[in-house]
Structure formats: structure tokens, C-alpha cells
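Researcher: I need the complex structure. Ligand is NDP. Inputs:
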Amino acid sequence: MADRLDGTTALITGASSGIGYATALELAALGANVAVAARRRDRLDALAAEIGDRAFVIEADVTSEASARSAVEQAAEHFGRLDTVIANAGVMLLGPIVDAPLDEWERMVDLNVKGVLYTAHAALPHLLAAAEQEPRRVTDLVLVSSVAGRVARNGSGVYNLTKHGIGAFGESLRQEVTKRHVRVSLVEPGAVATELTDHLRDEIKPMMAQRFADMERMEAVDIAETIGFIVTRPRRVAVNEVLIRPTEQDA
Ligand code: NDP
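Model: Output:
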């Protein structure tokens, strides 16, 4: 029997679209107060309107340490505690390594690595404190990685680097804090129909389109429900890692 999240607070980064948006709806449905963070305020406002009183909008760019910290502090202050953090904001700029535009590498490292580190660093004191409190006496940091964090492929080298790095960081942190009842979980989705591929260069888009042409991709809600499962486990259970692919994705 899953626990509910009533009386707890969740912060979701990258909540203005895709997996983050769906996860905010899911955690709110499970009873949590939800702080939703991203850069596009209009999208966050629409999400908050769907959720109602238990939503709090935070305009934040987590590639800035100050902005990431402020997002965490605002969430904790507004709702009085912080129990669940979903470090989800990410960008996937695929393409060959040779002659790659360096700004794409910088954007991926800044968001997928530093954004997650800044969010985790600011959130951990709150998660450690809330893990000692009722109603659940356990808290969750969920890191949204990717199949690309497990398997490296030609054409996604720096995205692979960022997601592999998050996996290593998460496992080290898990060992550090698990006895204090902060659970660190890694979620590794395969292809999900979101805005993620919109940011690819025009010359790269056809390659992706071809790869997924005959495949039914997952929906954001599929990942949101998986995250909902992870964070509602009883205190004694930690789901460390979930690899979740579309049924038709063979690699
Ligand atoms: P989307 O592009 O739909 O969502 C990305 C989110 O990140 C948006 O809400 C965006 O909001 C936010 N974001 C981007 N830059 C920043 C920033 N600087 N500060 C704060 N938020 C930011 O893609 P997905 O939902 O698919 O991606 C979510 C996560 O899932 C990513 O980490 C991605 O790597 C991972 N993933 C996705 C897969 C897929 O197939 N879709 C597969 C495997 C993993 P805004 O622009 O408003 O700031």
C-alpha cells in the first residue's frame, strides 16, 4: 500500500513542460504541496492553476547557483518544509563531437550537471531535517537521468557524459545519506514525447525523427507515475534506480 504525501512539500525543477509538468500534477494528486520551478512563468502559472492552492510558482534558472538556492529556499519557506526534490530540468543537444558548437556542451554541463548539483546542495539540509519529522520521517531526492546515463552512443557524447555523471553523483550521495533516511533515486527514461528534441539543431532533428519514426514513445505521465511510485514507498524501502523504456525501444 502506497503512502500518501499529505503534509509534505515537493520541489520540481523543469516543471514548465514534459516530465516535470506531469510530475508536479502527480505529486499534487498524491497530496503534496508542490513548488514548481522553471524559467517560463506563463507555463508555471498554467500548471499552478490546474493544481490549485497547493501549488507555488518559482521562476528560476537553475544554471545560476543563486537562483537554484533561492528556488529551494522559497519552496521551503513558503510551505514550511521540504520533503521531496525532483531534479528534472535538463537539455539534450545531440550531435557529433567533432566540430560541435561548444556553447551546446556548455549548456548541457551547466544545466544537466551544475543545475542538479546546485539544487541538491541547497536542498540537502532541508531534506535531512524533514527526514527526522512526521508525517513520513523519510525524504526523497529524485535525479532524472536517462538511458543515456547507462549507455553511451555515437552522437550523444556530451549528453552521455552529463547523465553518466549524475548517476555517479547520485550513487555516492545515496551511500552518504541513506542511513539518515534521505533516499536518493535515479530515474533513467528512454524516449518520452516532450519538448526535449525541440532544442536540437535543424541538421540533427531528422536523425532523431528517423530513430523514433516507428516507435510509440512513452508519455510524460508514464515517468511521473514512476516518480510517484518511488516517493510513496514506505520508509523502509528505497527504490535506488529505475530504467524505463518504451516497449518498442530495443537499445
Ligand atoms: P522538456 O524540454 O519538455 O522539459 C525541460 C524542462 O527543463 C522545461 O520545464 C524547461 O523549462 C526546464 N529548463 C530548461 N532550462 C532550465 C533552466 N536553466 N532552469 C530551470 N529549468 C530549466 O523535456 P523533458 O521533460 O523530456 O526533460 C526532463 C528531463 O528528462 C531532462 O533532464 C531530460 O534529460 C530527461 N529525459 C528526457 C527524455 C525524453 O525522451 N524526453 C529521456 C530521458 C531523459 P524552461 O524552459 O521554462 O526553463
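Model: Summary of the prediction. The longest helix spans residues 102-130.
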